[in-house]
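User: I need a structural model of Endodeoxyribonuclease RusA from Nitratifractor salsuginis for a docking pre-check later this week. Nothing fancy, just the predicted structure tokens so I can convert them on my end. Input:
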Amino acid sequence: MRKEILIFDIVPVPAPRPRVTKSGAYMPESYRNFKRIIGYLARRQLKAPFTGAVKMNILFQFKKPKSWSKAKRKRAFWHTQKPDKDNLEKSIKDALEGIAYRNDSAVASGSIHKVWGDCNRIVVELEDLSDEERPEMFYQYAKEEGR
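Assistant: Understood. Predicted structure tokens for Endodeoxyribonuclease RusA:
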């Protein structure tokens, strides 16, 4: 089973909605730059693209504000503010498309975590699911032919 961990010391950026004009739709330049940076850094860390189903676990770490008291900084862990985890996940899946896997539809499993920390960081764990047993969780509810 192949597993790779990618670490990006960068401020997490959520995927925005496309901007629509009379001449068509486009994504903001800041988002396109974020995707380029993640792509560049991923190519330097990744041995080879994954083929088949992929499990992706992502940790988004946000730097704790200096304005917080020591007590608040000490007890803060889960990041419950904007941006939401869905848009953060989308930005990483889009940025790694064509680099870590052919299409982001290859991501079949995984988890997303948003936490506070001492620095801004994104940690992506990619794992090949081709050799993995079927997960027991919810499998009892899956419907197969002949069942």
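Before docking, keep this in mind: The radius of gyration is 18 Å.
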